[in-house]
């Protein structure tokens, strides 16, 4: 386990439930958020920058302000949403560092940083923590690989700033790899990615659900005391909340939920959006928090 500093412990508490479980509403998506706004007159391409800002603002107002924390991006949402006073004083802010998309190097995927965003600028935007996405294939990469060095470098930079860093890992299917081949090794890829990250100094992880209770327990063992949260990966709420319950029962520390909460509640029309976020998305968030804190048992 990589020990949290006092500042990091305080930041982690700020983005956690009363029961001490990590819970963050993820709204740092850009193109995928546009894609679910189904009433856009000409599809996602017709959603304007200002409309996307307004949608993110409403996710904060009607959803995330009722939970511990919100994850936002510095390309669209920040610093405007902070400067406009939309985030509630008791809602933590996690700032996403990763730009949309990825680049291929020798057949492997690598994320890019948003231009000009550093641990220092996360502080300047009012962030309590930072989040960075890395793609990993630990069957092709090891502790000496480029991606693990990138993780180490960011850990060092955030440590120097006293900033809590959440590292999100996505494993992925390689070109030429069949779905069956990928499915067979998927849990082990997540387990081995967790181990590589902890060895690189990561203190909080955001990971895909590894597929079973047994695999979740193996991820917890690989994390070696490092908190890990389950990401929703676009599945529906009922599926995700079941995954979270299993993962937490086997050592996970929380959840980071995006599209599972709000993907069917976003419209270009702000009146419809307010109604859907309030009456459809918010009950999901409250149910997720209750499951995390053991106040609601799934049957």
TrEMBL record:
GO BP terms: 6-sulfoquinovose(1-) catabolic process
Keywords: Lyase
Molecular function via GO: 6-deoxy-6-sulfofructose-1-phosphate aldolase activity
InterPro entries per UniProt: Aldolase_TIM, DeoC/FbaB/LacD_aldolase, LacD_aldolase
Presence of keyword Repeat: no
Gene3D superfamilies: Aldolase class I
Family in the record: Belongs to the aldolase LacD family.
The protein's name in its UniProt record: Tagatose-bisphosphate aldolase
Natural source organism: Subtercola boreus
UniProt lineage: Bacteria, Bacillati, Actinomycetota, Actinomycetes, Micrococcales
């Amino acid at each position: 386990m990589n020990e949290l500093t006092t500042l990091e412990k305080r930041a982690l508490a700020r983005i956690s439930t009363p029961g001490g479980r990590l819970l963050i509403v993820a709204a740092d998506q850009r193109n995928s958020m546009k894609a679910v706004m189904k009433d856009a007159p000409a599809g996602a391409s017709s959603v304007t920058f200002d409309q996307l800002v307004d949608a993110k603002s409403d996710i904060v107002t009607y959803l995330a302000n009722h939970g511990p924390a919100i994850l936002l991006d510095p390309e669209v949402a920040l610093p405007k949403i902070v400067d406009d006073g939309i985030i509630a004083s008791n809602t933590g802010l996690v700032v996403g560092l990763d730009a949309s998309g990825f680049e291929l190097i020798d057949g492997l995927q690598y994320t890019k940083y948003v231009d000009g965003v550093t641990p220092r600028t996360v502080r300047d935007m009012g962030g309590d923590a930072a989040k960075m996405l890395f793609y990993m294939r630990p069957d092709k990469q090891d502790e000496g690989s480029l991606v693990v060095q990138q993780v180490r470098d960011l850990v060092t930079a955030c440590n120097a700033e006293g900033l809590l860093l959440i590292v999100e890992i996505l494993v992925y299917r390689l070109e030429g790899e069949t779905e069956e081949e990928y499915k067979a090794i998927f849990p082990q890829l997540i387990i081995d990615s967790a181990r590589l990250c902890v060895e690189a100094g990561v203190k909080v992880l955001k990971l895909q659900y590894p597929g079973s209770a047994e695999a979740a327990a193996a991820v917890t063992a690989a994390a070696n005391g490092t908190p890990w949260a389950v990401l929703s990966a676009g599945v529906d709420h009922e599926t995700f909340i079941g995954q979270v319950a299993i993962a937490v029962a086997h050592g996970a520390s929380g959840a980071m939920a995006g599209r599972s909460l709000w993907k069917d509640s976003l419209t270009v029309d702000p009146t419809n959006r307010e109604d859907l976020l309030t009456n459809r998305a918010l009950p999901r968030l409250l149910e997720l928090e209750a499951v995390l804190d053991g106040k609601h048992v799934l049957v």
